[in-house]
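[Solved] Which block belongs to which protein?

Original post:
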Amino acid sequence: MRLRLIHDLHAALERRFPERRLFLRSETETRFIRLRPETQAIAWTGATLVVGWTIVATAILLMDSIGAGNFRAQAARDRTIYEDRLNAISDERDLRLTEAQAAQERFSAALAQISTMQGEILRLEEQKRELASGIEAMQATLQEAMTERDLARNEAETLLAAAEAGEISLATGADDELSGALGVLTSALSETAAERDQVAASAESALEQTAELELELRLMSDRNDAIFRQIEEAMVVSVEPFDRMFRAAGMDPQRVIDTVRSGYSGQGGPLMPITYSTSDAGQPDPDTLRANEILGRLDELNLYRIAASVAPFSPPLRDGYRFTSGFGARWGRQHAGLDLAGPVGTPVYATADGVVTEAGWHSGYGRLITIRHQFGIETRYAHLNAIRVEVGQRVSRGDRIGDMGNSGRSTGPHLHYEIREGGEPVNPTIYMRAGQDVF
């Protein structure tokens, strides 16, 4: 049975691949090689497999080449988009910074003008009180003189009426004495009348001055109100970007302010509340209350700036760079930060004030710097080429702490940048985007 199958197979192969002979002729003899059907079948099968494998491999290479070209083109387009976006963010940041500086300058000038005006208001109030006291004294003196004049006039009229009626008899000496008394009385009455007219003129002048002062005070109050409105608008423009920045980063602005206030012992001076009062009841006048409210907002702005300096809102790189990997799942693993690529030696900057807790080699991170900030935040800067800080050193936002490199598990020069809250990694772009209108 087995022999029959072999015979049938040989017959089928012989029909498809008949036996052939390959002659090899030399000068002295002729030789031939017999190609059996089985040998031809094996050779044909091998050749077919080689050709097929070549076609498949060529197709795979072509597909990979086309896919790689599309990927590179897409990566180039993404890089261009990122660079354009970064340039726009940088320009907008510079514009916002210029606006904030201009608002701060306007506020400082307005605050100085308010201080000058407050002094002028106090001087005018004091002058007004002195004028009011003088007017009251002049009115009392005038009233007393008029009373004495009326009494003297009544007494003189009574004496003259009695003399004319003959109710009293006067000797010649007495008549002369009475005449002299009447002359003295008349002179006194004339002086009193003149003094009365002078006091009345002084009182009228004082009233006119009082009206002028009141008009000046009203004009000054209007100017103060306009200045206060400008300052309040400037404060709103200055505070709102910080408020939006903290909210965008998922931080409660009030909790941030309370935390900074509890741990910061600032100095007095321009932020001390105004405690004097110019009202009659001893209560602060509206301008004082308004000024104190503005000073409170200025103190809030100052606390916002302190909080912004200790939270990582600024980017770790300033020179040209590109995003090569974002936060999240990558190759089936969690990528805990951002990869920012650039040339070796690119300066790396601290993104917030803090204390260096690690500065050295750390396994796959390579050369690593770790900085602890307030609010339980920690930043990491990995794969560095050089480290420029030491453990325990305090750094400020914008200080150069190292150079970009390719140390540790890295496929090319880049910075691996992480932000951790309470030990858990968070997306650094949240902070960077939140701070793009401020830094």
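(Second protein starts here: sequence line, then its structure tokens.)
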Amino acid sequence: MEKDLIQPSTRFWEMFFKVFEGLPRQDPGNLACAMKAIDLCCDLPSTPAVLDLGCGVGGQTLYLAELLQDTFITAMDRHLPSIENCRRW
């Protein structure tokens, strides 16, 4: 029998975002990780379209922008304050 998935409560998300939304990066990674991710993509055009889902405040998005100059990057996250922080970059 499958276990029921436990969904985090509203209070969990309030606390989660309170702790993390002020951080400059909310995920692991660095420029080398972004380079590795790009290297794993086969046959990229010179200016690929990039979709960064769950971008947070945009730490990894900025690395992608640095490596893929003149590329249009769409960064999306479900948490509006994170998107607002990302736009400040």
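Accepted answer:
You had them paired correctly. Confirming on the second one: The mean pLDDT is 84.
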